[in-house]
Design a protein that fits this description.
heterodimer, A: Butyryl-Coa Dehydrogenase, subunit A, domain 1, Butyryl-CoA Dehydrogenase, subunit A, domain 2, Butyryl-CoA Dehydrogenase, subunit A, domain 3, 11 helices, 52% helix, globular, B: alpha+beta, 4-stranded mixed beta sheet, 4-stranded antiparallel beta sheet
């Protein structure tokens, strides 16, 4: 097996620089803090800029108005957004939803929806978790029953990303003959949306209650389960890149502080107890970055081991980001314990990212299972 | 430097080996032939057994030699004596010392560490005192491989006690085969003996074997250590299967299955944890090799040793959990327990040898992250006045 390259091409470096510039301008700490306390949690002007730059259509094929970018390009973008803690429904609308629709193989729905996502006029999210786990349940209690030409959905979905602002929900439900995905409009009767009180105010979530709520079947019955798994795997490539970017930034912030903060007449970074923490952060952040870059390249190369690599990387990047963000607070000392300092914002994001597509134990178990199957 | 392409070099060395290599040939005769052909140290000048190739091409030559089982090349990367003398020796030293070393007619060992100077190597107390055309050496060195077969030791000794510690050290090519040099093997915690202690009592080294100026030995040592680190890097990249140093990706799952604990949820988590450490380290190395950004590459390579320490210790820890009570037993009757204990103990080889993990973290913190050094209150204190 030839080693796959995780090095960026010139075009990818340009993309990284463009996104980094945008983040510096539009997602500085002041903007993040403003959106943290805003109910919608995102800035419509920035969303339009993302659309204009082609970032909302990044994962969308050209035939549906997008750029048809590969996983490596998505990872480049997600890494920069993670560094800046961008507050926007990017993961739900621009990543998870397109991947799900493409996996469902419903060209009509893709043609109707994806171009609108790419230009920024539709916000969509995916509703699958039902509590207990943030992963999709194998046998959802949310049910879909036939009603004339359509379906009626009843049940409860939680940990739904950006639920309060989504125009449309793609809801996983059981219709007796199998699991399927149904499109539910925000305005549908019987749908109620409750915002969840999240630890991470930069990433909003909500709970859906459906009571005989009309939904449209997308794709076919039985495809819903595997399509959702596939979409979560593809979206996880972005999530781990975001974790790596967040970890890199949190590490940088702490080491910069250790260089300038003086106690006992010397920079605290000259104390080995602090210096060693910084090096441990560097190792974890850099390793997470290598993992995220490798997995993206492995998906682009259709490497046979890519799912095992992803499972391993999801477990690793989740723990690495939490470790780096947590250690960063400790390095900052008293100032790191204040709400005004951004260190805790990275820990909040890290703890959310470490759960939102399943916790690291789940990914590690998946890794061993995949390895067992291949040995 | 010639402008031969890599392919030209590969073709030429391959042809030369086909024409000349004969495994039954006398060792000395073969080494002279390799030297005269310029394959001993391919990146050096012809007079030192080279032919002016690039370092990368020198590695190509080594790979071709390796493929046919031939020896005698690579002195430009592996011969610390010749590398150091070539850069910093006098013309007389070069002519006298390099050719026999490069041809393998003389062998060398390293006399750096001391019982009282490990992480703080500049605190060494082995002394060399001028006596006519010689220096008289007294002291004790430790962690020396191949001391018994060496003709020379690359020796750092204190020649001036009235200046700060880094400035009173001199670097010698010290003759090992003389009275006053006593070699005792060190018994390691693994039960193996790869290293020796060297006791030096009134032994002599000619002034002609001083490399650099008296008191200038620290700078010479830094160069010699840089060559050594380059060699260690080469070896780490090309190592096939040095005993148990590379945790095989399948070994944990295989071991757990054999021990009947692969169904244990805790063990499964631990296996995945250990394998993720090894795997991300591999991804780090890949990224370091392919990036065009030298800072990124240097950062990743600098982290490699710390990462490897953790991989070895963690893998051994989890293997211990998998094996369970057999980890109490050793010897050939208990091969699995024996191997696990060996790995557990041998992991310290990496976390202590070549700079402890803690020193390594200082180096990375200072050189990569730009964090300030610890204050050195005795920076300007004469060595003899240091507290100890």
């Amino acid at each position: 097996m030839t080693p796959i390259s995780a090095v960026l091409t010139e075009q990818q470096s340009d993309l990284r620089d463009a996104v980094a510039n945008l983040m510096a301008k539009r997602s500085p700490e002041a903007a993040v803090r403003r959106l943290m306390s805003d109910e919608s949690g995102y800035d419509t002007a920035v969303w339009s800029e993302l659309a204009a730059m082609g970032l909302l259509g990044l994962t969308i094929p050209e035939e549906f108005g997008g750029a048809g970018a590969d996983a490596t390009e998505l990872a480049v973008v997600a890494e920069q957004m993670g560094r800046a803690l961008l507050c926007a429904p990017y993961l739900s609308t621009a990543v998870l939803t397109p991947y799900l629709l493409l996996a469902l193989g419903d060209p009509a729905e893709s043609a109707e929806t994806l171009p609108r996502i790419a230009v920024g006029e539709l916000l969509a999210t995916v509703a699958f978790a039902e509590g207990g786990s943030a992963r999709p349940p194998e046998h959802p209690t949310t049910s879909a029953t036939v009603d004339g030409d359509g379906w009626l959905l009843t049940g409860e979905k939680t940990y739904v990303l950006d639920a309060s602002i989504a125009d449309r929900f793609y809801v996983q439900a059981d219709c007796t003959s199998g699991v399927a995905i149904f499109a539910v409009e925000r305005t549908a009767p019987g749908l109620s949306i409750t915002p969840l009180t999240t630890v991470d105010p930069t990433r909003k979530q909500g709970r859906l209650t459906l009571a005989d709520t009309p939904g449209r079947l997308i794709g076919t019955i039985g495809v819903g389960g595997p399509a959702l798994e596939h979409a979560l795997d593809r979206a996880a490539v972005a999530l781990i890149a975001e974790q790596a970017g967040g970890a890199m930034h949190a590490m940088q912030m702490a080491t910069d502080y250790a260089r300038v903060r003086h106690q006992f007449g010397r920079a605290i970074g000259s104390f080995q107890a602090v210096k060693h923490m910084c090096v441990d952060m560097l190792l974890e952040a850099q390793s997470a970055l290598s993992a995220a870059r490798h997995v993206a390249a492995a998906f682009d190369a259709c490497e046979p081991d890519r799912l095992a690599d992803l499972a391993l990387a999801q477990g690793y990047c989740s723990d690495a980001f939490v470790f780096v963000a947590a250690t960063g607070i400790q390095v900052h000392g008293g100032i790191g314990f204040t709400w005004e300092h951004p260190a805790h914002l990275y820990l909040r994001r890290a703890r959310t990212d470490a759960q939102v597509f399943g916790d690291s134990n789940w990914h590690r178990e998946r890794y061993v299972r995949l390895r067992e199957e291949n040995s | 430097m010639t402008d031969a392409s890599d392919d030209d070099v590969r073709a030429e060395v391959r042809q030369w080996l086909a024409d000349n290599f004969d495994p039954t040939r006398d060792r000395g005769e073969w080494s002279r032939k390799v030297f005269d052909a310029g394959w001993s140290a391919p990146s050096w000048e012809p007079e030192w057994g080279g032919r002016g190739l690039s370092t990368a091409q020198s590695r190509i030559v080594a790979a071709e030699f390796g493929d046919v089982g031939a020896y005698g090349t690579g002195a430009d990367r592996a011969d610390m004596l010749a590398c150091t003398v070539r850069d910093l020796g006098t013309e007389e030293q070069k002519l006298r010392l390099i050719p026999p070393s490069v041809r393998g007619e003389t062998r060398w060992c390293l006399l750096y560490s001391e019982p009282g100077a490990g992480s703080d190597l500049a605190g060494l107390r082995t002394r060399a005192d001028r006596d006519g055309d010689d220096w008289i050496v007294n002291g004790q060195k430790v962690w020396t491989s191949f001391a018994k077969t060496a003709d020379y030791g690359l020796l750092v000794a204190r020649t001036n006690w009235d200046v700060p510690k880094h400035r009173g050290i001199s670097f010698f090519i010290f003759p090992m085969r003389q009275p006053g040099v006593e070699i005792r093997p060190i018994h390691q915690i693994t039960g193996e003996s790869e290293f020796n202690e060297v006791f030096i009592t009134d032994a002599r080294v000619p002034h002609a074997n001083l490399v650099g100026e008296p008191g200038g030995g620290w700078a010479v040592l830094q160069l010699a250590l840089a060559y050594e680190r380059r060699l260690m890097g080469d070896l780490a990249r090309t190592a096939k299967s040095t005993r148990d140093l590379k945790p095989d990706a399948d070994s944990l799952i295989g071991m757990a299955r054999a021990a009947g604990v692969l169904g244990n949820a805790h063990i499964r988590q631990e296996i995945a944890r250990a394998e993720s450490l090894a795997t991300v380290n591999r991804w780090n190395t890949q990224r370091a090799k392919t990036t065009t950004d030298p800072t990124e590459a240097a950062t990743l390579m600098a982290l490699g040793k710390i990462a490897m320490s953790r991989i070895l210790h963690e893998t051994a820890r989890i293997q211990t959990e998998v094996v369970g009570p057999e980890s109490m037993l050793t010897g050939s009757d208990n091969p699995v327990g024996d191997a696990v204990t060996f790995r557990t103990l041998n992991a310290y080889f990496t976390s202590i040898g070549g700079g402890t993990d803690q020193i390594q973290r200082n180096i990375v913190g200072e050189r990569i992250l730009g964090l300030p050094k610890e204050p050195e209150p005795h920076r300007e204190t004469a060595f003899r006045d240091l507290p100890h």
